[in-house]
TrEMBL record, chain A:
InterPro entries: SpoIIM-like (IPR002798)
Membrane-spanning residues: 119-136, 180-202, 209-227, 233-256, 277-298, 310-328
Domain of life: Bacteria
Short name of one Pfam family: SpoIIM
Keywords: Membrane, Transmembrane, Transmembrane helix
Name by which UniProt lists this protein: Uncharacterized membrane protein SpoIIM, required for sporulation
Lineage: Bacteria, Pseudomonadati, Pseudomonadota, Alphaproteobacteria, Caulobacterales
From TrEMBL, chain B:
Residue ranges occupied by any RDD domain in the UniProt entry: 38-194
Location of this chain's protein in the cell: Membrane
Domain of life: Bacteria
A cellular component term, taken from the record's GO annotations: membrane
InterPro entries for the chain: RDD
Main location: membrane
Membrane topology: Multi-pass membrane protein
Record flagged with keyword Membrane: yes
Lineage: Bacteria, Pseudomonadati, Pseudomonadota, Alphaproteobacteria, Caulobacterales
Pfam families in alphabetical order: RDD (PF06271)
Xref: PANTHER family: SLR0254 PROTEIN
Transmembrane segments: 51-70, 82-104, 163-181
Protein name: Uncharacterized membrane protein YckC, RDD family
C-alpha cells in the first residue's frame, strides 16, 4: 500500500446496499405509477417481462434490508413499494375468458349443488307458505286483503272473472316492454340480495321473507282459482315463475347457509366457516342475478307477447328443465379427478 | 427521549406509523409484507364520499337532461323506441347506483370505489390471494343488513321508543360499529367474504442521514459506552432529524449529551443538528455492525450488545 492510494470512503454496509439497488426500486416505482394511471394494457412486452424481475428484486431487497439496515425511512419505503407491487403482480389478472369459464362451467353449478340441502329447505318454506296462503284465504276470504293490501283494484276480492282475465292477458301492441323487463329484473335482484343478506341475522328474516312470498303466491292462486281461472293463472305465472322463484329459492338457500355456518361452524373456527360460506354463497348469488335477468326478460317481454296458456306453460317447463339439467350435470368432476 | 409508555407503539408500528396495525401476509417469495389496516375513520370517510357520489350523480344527470334542448323530441308520442331506450338506460343507471356501484368498482383492477381511492384504501383478500368476484359480491351484499337496515332501524327507533325498537336499535348499532371491535377494523361483510380493507400509502425514499466521512473530518467520535441506546431510540432520533425542528433537536441533543457525559470540544463546538447527525451515524454503525452478527438491541432498557 502506498501513501498516494486513495483512502476508501467510510461507509456503512447498509449505505452501499442502498446505493447498489435504489435505481431498481425507483424503476419499479415508476412502473407502478404507470400501472395505476393507465393500466397494464399500456405496457410493452419488454416492460411486462421486466415487471416481475423488478418486483422480485424489490422483495429480496426488503428481506435483506430488514436484516442489515436500521434506516427506518428506507425500510418503510421498501415495504410500501412491495405492497403496491404485490397487488399488481398477484392481483386479479385472470383472462376474461377464464373468468367466464370458471364461473359458468365450474363455480356456479357446483356452488348450487353444495347448497342443495338449504335450497330444499327454502323450497319447502315457499311451498308451506303457498299452502298456508291458499288454506287461509279459502277459510276466510278477508285474509286476502291482509296478505295483499295493495291489490284492491284490478285483482281484489270484488273483481269479476273478466277483470281478472284482463290482468293476465298479454299486451303485444305495447312497445315499451323492455323497460318493464328491466324494472322487474332490478327490483327482483334487490329483493334477492336482501333475502340473502338477511341470512346473517340467524336466517329469521330470510325465512319470513320466503314464507311471505309463498303466502302471497298461494293467496293469488286461490283468488284466480275460485273464479275458474286457475289454469290460465298458473300459465301466466309459470312462464317466468319457474326461473324467478327458483332464483329466489336459491337466494333464500344462500341466506340459510350463512345462518347455519354462523350458528354451527362445525369443525373449523367460526371465522373460517363464515369465510367458506361467504365465498360459496357469493358465487351462487351472482348466478341468482343472472337467473333473475333471464326471468325479467321472460316476464317483461315473453309473457306480454305470448298469450296462449299452453305456450306459456311450455316455455316455463322448458326453462325449469334447462335449469335443472344445468345444476345437476354441468361441472361434475370426472371420476379420478382430484378435489 | 421517548417515554417508556410509547415504546411498544413505535417498535410494533408498521411503516413507522405509530398507533396503526397491519395485516401481515406471507408472499410466495417467503417475505412477510405488512398491509396497514384502514382505520374506522378512513372507512367511514370513504363511505361518505361514495354516498355523496351516489346521491349527486342522478342530480347531475337530471340537470344535464334539463339543460339539453330535448323538450320536443318526445312530444305527442314521437320516438317511442328512443323513449323506452332512455328509460332503460335510466333504470339501469339507478340500479347500478343502488346495487352495483360498490361491486363493479371493487371488481376492477384498483379494487376500490372512488371514495376508497381518495382515502388511499384498497380491498384485499385476507390471505393475500386473488380477490374473487364472489368475495366482492358477498362483502357488498352484506351492506344491506349491516348498513341500510341498521340506518332504517335507527330512524324507526328515533320515531318510536318501544321495547322492540330499542332491541333493534342496539342490534343495528352493534353491527354498524363492529369494525371498532376488531384489530383489522373488518365489518361483517369482510368476515364473510374473507376480505380486508387496507391503506396503501405512497412512501418516498428520502436521503440517507449517515455521513461517516463528514463526521470523521469534523472529529466527532463516540466511545462504545457512549452509544447507549437501542433501535427504538434510533428510530425516534431519525424522525427528529428528518423533521428538523430546531427546538426539538435542541432538547434531544441536551438529553443525549447529559446521558452520555458528552464534553463539547473547546474550539468550534458542533451545532445541535451536526451533533445529532454524528451521533445517529455512530449509533447506527454500531447497531448495524452488531445486527450482522445476530445481536440486536431493541431499546435502551435491553442489555448492551
Amino acid at each position: 500500500m502506498t501513501d498516494d492510494a486513495p483512502k476508501p470512503v467510510l461507509r456503512l454496509k447498509s449505505q452501499k446496499f442502498r446505493e447498489a439497488r435504489q435505481s431498481d426500486w425507483r424503476a419499479l416505482s415508476t412502473q407502478l405509477d404507470k400501472v395505476e394511471r393507465r393500466g397494464l394494457g399500456s405496457f410493452s412486452i419488454d416492460e411486462l417481462l421486466n415487471l416481475p424481475l423488478l418486483y422480485r428484486s424489490a422483495m429480496s431487497s426488503l428481506s435483506m434490508a430488514q436484516s442489515i439496515s436500521l434506516d427506518r425511512n428506507m425500510i418503510t419505503y421498501l415495504q410500501a413499494l412491495c405492497v403496491r407491487a404485490y397487488v399488481y403482480v398477484y392481483g386479479p389478472q385472470t383472462r376474461f375468458k377464464d373468468v367466464l369459464y370458471s364461473f359458468f362451467v365450474l363455480g356456479w353449478p357446483r356452488a348450487v349443488r353444495k347448497l342443495g340441502g338449504e335450497i330444499v329447505l327454502a323450497f319447502a318454506t315457499l311451498v308451506a307458505g303457498a299452502i298456508a296462503g291458499w288454506l287461509m284465504c279459502a277459510h276466510d276470504s278477508t285474509w286476502y286483503n291482509v296478505f295483499l293490501p295493495g291489490e284492491q283494484g284490478s285483482r281484489g276480492l270484488d273483481s269479476s272473472a273478466e277483470d281478472l282475465r284482463k290482468t293476465i292477458g298479454g299486451n303485444p301492441e305495447n312497445h315499451a316492454l323492455s323497460p318493464f323487463a328491466v324494472f322487474l329484473m332490478t327490483h327482483n335482484v334487490g329483493v334477492a340480495i336482501s333475502t340473502f343478506a338477511f341470512g346473517a341475522v340467524f336466517g329469521l328474516p330470510t325465512f319470513a321473507l320466503t314464507l311471505y312470498t309463498g303466502i302471497t303466491l298461494g293467496a293469488m292462486v286461490w283468488l284466480f282459482a275460485q273464479q275458474g281461472l286457475g289454469f290460465e293463472f298458473a300459465a301466466w305465472l309459470t312462464i317466468h315463475g319457474t326461473t324467478e322463484l327458483f332464483a329466489l329459492v336459491i337466494a333464500a338457500g344462500c341466506g340459510f347457509h350463512i345462518a347455519r355456518r354462523l350458528m354451527f361452524p362445525g369443525d373449523v373456527t367460526r371465522k373460517q366457516a363464515l369465510r367458506e360460506a361467504g365465498t360459496l354463497t357469493g358465487t351462487a348469488m351472482i348466478g341468482v342475478a343472472v337467473m333473475l335477468t333471464v326471468a325479467g326478460c321472460l316476464e317483461g317481454i315473453g309473457r306480454q307477447m305470448i298469450t296462449d296458456p299452453f305456450a306459456r306453460i311450455g316455455i316455463g317447463a322448458v326453462m325449469l328443465t334447462i335449469w335443472g339439467l344445468y345444476y345437476t350435470s354441468v361441472g361434475r368432476r370426472k371420476p379420478g379427478e382430484g378435489a | 427521549m421517548a417515554k417508556a409508555g410509547k415504546r411498544d407503539l413505535a417498535s410494533d408500528a408498521p411503516y413507522g406509523e405509530i398507533g396503526r396495525t397491519a395485516t401481515e401476509i406471507l408472499t410466495p417469495e417467503g417475505v412477510v409484507l405488512p398491509f396497514i389496516n384502514a382505520t374506522f375513520g378512513e372507512r367511514v370517510g370513504a363511505l361518505l364520499l361514495d354516498w355523496l357520489i351516489m346521491i349527486l350523480a342522478p342530480v347531475v344527470v337530471v340537470i344535464i337532461w334539463l339543460i339539453l334542448p330535448l323538450e320536443h323530441v318526445f312530444d305527442g308520442g314521437k320516438n317511442k323506441a328512443l323513449g323506452s331506450f332512455v328509460l332503460i338506460v335510466a333504470m339501469l343507471f339507478l340500479f347500478f347506483l343502488r346495487s352495483g356501484y360498490f361491486i363493479i368498482f371493487e371488481m376492477g383492477a384498483r379494487a376500490a370505489t372512488p371514495g376508497k381511492r381518495v382515502m388511499k384504501l384498497r380491498v384485499i383478500s385476507h390471505d393475500g390471494g386473488r380477490l374473487t368476484p364472489a368475495a366482492v359480491f358477498t362483502r357488498n351484499a352484506l351492506r344491506e343488513v349491516e348498513l341500510y337496515l341498521p340506518v332504517t332501524l335507527i330512524f324507526a327507533w328515533s320515531a318510536n321508543h318501544s321495547a322492540g325498537s330499542w332491541l333493534a336499535f342496539l342490534w343495528a348499532l352493534a353491527l354498524l360499529l363492529l369494525p371498532l371491535f376488531n384489530k383489522q377494523h373488518a365489518r361483517l361483510g369482510d368476515f364473510l367474504a374473507g376480505t380486508r380493507v387496507v391503506h396503501m400509502p405512497k412512501a418516498s425514499l428520502s436521503y440517507d442521514l449517515v455521513d461517516l466521512e463528514g463526521d470523521r473530518n469534523l472529529g466527532l467520535s463516540f466511545t462504545p459506552d457512549q452509544l447507549a441506546y437501542g433501535e427504538m431510540e434510533l428510530t425516534v432520533l431519525e424522525q427528529v432529524l428528518r423533521e428538523r425542528k430546531p427546538a426539538v433537536m435542541k432538547a434531544v441533543a441536551a438529553r443525549i449529551k447529559a446521558r452520555i457525559n458528552w464534553v463539547d470540544p473547546k474550539i468550534d463546538p458542533p451545532g445541535d443538528e451536526t451533533f445529532l447527525r454524528a451521533y445517529y451515524g455512530a449509533l447506527r454503525a454500531h447497531l448495524e455492525a452488531k445486527m450482522l452478527l445476530g445481536r440486536r438491541r431493541k431499546d435502551k432498557h435491553d442489555a448492551p450488545v
